[in-house]
Amino acid sequence: MYSTFSRLSALVVAALLLVMGTGCDSGVDPNLQTENDEPAVQFATSSVSSSRSADSVPIEVTISNAPDREVTAELLYANAISETEATEFGFPGDAVVGDGNAYVAGSVTFPPNAEGDAATATVDVPLSGTSDVDDQLTAVFTLQNVQGATIGSRNRFELVLGAITLLEENFSDEEPAPFAVVDAPDSGSSWFLATFDNDQSPYMEANGFGADTPSNSWLISPAFDFTETNGETLSFANAKNFDDGGVEQGLLVKVSTDYDGEGNPEDFTWTDITNREGAVYSEGGYEFVSTGAIDISDEEFQAEEVYIAFQYITSGTDGGTTELWQVDDILVRAQ
Fold first, then answer.
1. Do you find a cis peptide bond into 112, omega within 30 degrees of 0?
2. What SS3 state is found at 106?
3. DSSP codes joined into one string, 172-209
4. What is the CATH number of domain 180-334?
5. Distance between CA 272 and CA 249 in Å, rounded?
6. 11 and 98 in contact (C-beta within 8 Å)?
7. How many H helices and E strands in the chain?
8. Which three-class secondary structure state does DSSP give residue 150?
């Protein structure tokens, strides 16, 4: 059985998730940040999808700056804020916390000075296989009772049951691919891969401050075939700093079905989906937030070659006419 502290902590964590949503970075200018050597445990990725026919789903947890002591953590299924029901999973009877608002789904242990493969641990979350639900539903997991380290910023993990993952990119290979950076003629700056010693790094960044001309740079996905799927959604993490008084927002999100994959994107037709219902964007301070699932299942997008683009624009090149934007954890799903 789990301790009273464990149960109370689980409920507190679930409540905090309701208020805070996903984790965020330090909110400090990367050029001014100091390195953080504090050992931290977090999820390896922010989400994964699975069919309900699978026996279990592996969820990876990582540690950075491992100390010279053992580190342990529990994986919590937050039933109270999940779309799924606990019956979707094969949790043992003693995993329930309190009145069923949460379940301890498993635990991980990292040895002292964990590096390489030892710095990643996996919890196999069992699926019950008894659900008769066909809809795509999201289960939320978080970390709790971390002993010997702190909890990193990626402390919300979403398991989407019944979903198909068409693309999941967090730029961990430290290169933009499979995305392409395409600049409009005379763009003063370009999207680039940025790295820093924080939990979100690496990510794609655009910053037109100090450029020779205003910026118009595009970060464009590979082509998707939406003719064999339905219920397509897009989500991504984003962070902002500074304000451009000449534009409503320096980051625009667009979809095209006639882009040729290599030309000047300005010569093709794009549908602006930036401000679709429910989409969330950073308000500044380098704070990463998740957009949530943006619906891109429009009938006009049901084509064999569908491109998604992140367009970065500025009205000028100095303070008050440029914004800095960062993009990460890009996820395209379908049913």
1. no
2. strand
3. TTSS-TTSEEEEPTT-S---EEE--SSTT-SEEEEE-T
4. 2.60.120.200
5. 12
6. yes
7. 1, 22
8. strand
Spell out the per-residue pLDDT of the chain, length 335, in tens: 333 334 444 444 444 443 334 333 323 333 333 345 899 999 999 998 888 878 999 999 999 999 999 999 999 999 999 999 999 999 998 999 988 899 999 999 999 999 999 999 999 999 997 777 777 899 999 999 999 999 998 999 999 898 788 999 999 999 999 999 999 999 999 999 998 877 788 999 999 999 999 999 999 999 999 998 888 999 999 999 999 999 999 999 999 999 999 999 999 999 999 999 999 999 999 999 999 999 999 999 999 999 999 999 999 999 999 999 999 999 999 87
Place of tokens 């799924």: 84
Q: Which residues contact 137 (CB under 8 A, 6 or more apart)?
A: 82, 83, 84, 88, 160, 161, 162
Rounded-to-integer distance, Cα 193 and Cα 181, Å: 10
C-alpha angle 92-83-299 in degrees, rounded to nearest 5: 140
Other residues' Cβ atoms within 10 Å of the Cβ of residue 16? 12
Q: Supply the DSSP symbol for 95.
A: G
Q: Is 71 left (phi over 0), alpha (psi -120 to 50) or beta?
A: beta
Q: Which of 127, 210, 153, 190 is CA-nearest to residue 38? A: 153
**Domain limits, the chain:** 4-162, 180-334
In single-letter form, the type of residue at position 7 comes to R
CATH number of 4-162: 2.60.40.2030
CB 331 within 8 A of CB 165: yes
CB 122 within 8 A of CB 295: no
